[in-house]
Amino acid sequence: MRIALFLAAVFAAAVALTALGVSAQESLRSYVIVGDAIPDSLTGEAGDAARGRAIVANRSVGLCLLCHRAPIPEERFQGDLAPDLAGAGARWSEGQLRLRLVDASRLNADTIMPPYYRLDHLQRVARNFAGKPILTARQIEDVVAYLASLKE
Amino acid sequence: MRKLSVALGLATVFLASLAMAQAGKDQRRSGYQDMGPTLQKMQDDDTANPAMLYVQAGEALWTQKAGAADKSCADCHSAGSMKGVAARYPAIPPGGDRPVDLEGRINLCRTEHQKAAPFGAESEQMLDLSAYVALQSRGMPIAPPNDPRLAAFRMHGGQLFKGREGQLNLSCANCHDDNAGKKLGGATIPQAHPTGYPIYRLEWQALGSLKRRLRNCMIGMRAEPFDEDSEDYIDLELYLMDRARGMTMDAPAVRP
Known about the structure:
The complex is a heterodimer of chains A (152) and B (256).
Chain A: H1 2-20, H2 49-57, H3 64-67, H4 88-91, H5 94-103, H6 137-148
Helix pairs in contact in A: 2-6, 5-6
Chain B: H1 2-23, H2 37-44, H3 51-62, H4 73-76, H5 102-113, H6 124-135, H7 151-162, H8 172-176, E1 183-184, E2 187-188, E3 199-201, E4 206-208, H9 210-220, H10 231-243, E5 254-255
Parallel strand pairs in B: 3-5
Antiparallel strand pairs in B: 1-2, 3-4
Helix pairs in contact in B: 3-6, 7-10
């Protein structure tokens, strides 16, 4: 009975979303930039640092280690195109880290750091990634929580 | 007095060009130079280079009659006549108005002279024949033709190289001009000189074309690859070959 109700709710939600033309995709949440930071959580909740570490370590989810080193010793092949993430939480506030993930090009127009939570001004995005940000709002918050924990 | 200033001028020009020659020492490196000694040895030793098996198959194809014309490549081209050909493609074929790559040229011979069906872009036969032809340019400098009609296509290729694309919003130049030599994950980023195609890539465990290599990079950027028969690949290849002008061909190469 409970399950049936739950399924009905999911179904109704899917119908509502389709009606809005959003289909099953997450549309971007709005955020406010203050100075060089996004002070407020995108989800309204704090992220989970352990989940964030797993995202950063994963080469097909976060992709961070392609370019950055991070204090994740079990991952052997770490890139060197970008600053070491060790100590990122000492150098930057959570809000500053959030903007750097969401859209680093706001701070440096020529950056090669991909815009993890932006959909506009992108060309030829592969069909299977079109219309999706690289990370979801919740994943961004998890990574922010992990980076903020890197104090040295 | 006039003589003196001319002499001084000449001396300055001479010194300046000397300085330029020293400062401008060619900084280009091929993918071969970026590999470790084990892989370099594998490429250099024809009995160890897996691409040579494809070359052998290509040599057999070269003399095999095909199509309604019942002609082989060897019926029209003498032995050794393919020397330097791979080093100058893409080029505009006689009577044509836009460039084709080496594979496209091979298919023109298939359809026009042999009256046979073209080979698929990544087909075994195409790889075999292009490896056989490319080997004959080994050791030669890359020498794109001085055909003014190519300029516009090459320029378009340069725009494709420098433009950002994909979900990761990167350009080819971001990696291959600005960050070559650095580590992307475990891989050293090469300067992307197309000296060795088709290549035997260990990761593929097979011979593959330049198109396949470019498609791999586009997938890495999470960009939608060009369609298999898209002219964009040819334009990009024209740009890459010009960028590598004078570098030594090492096809068929081995890459990690």
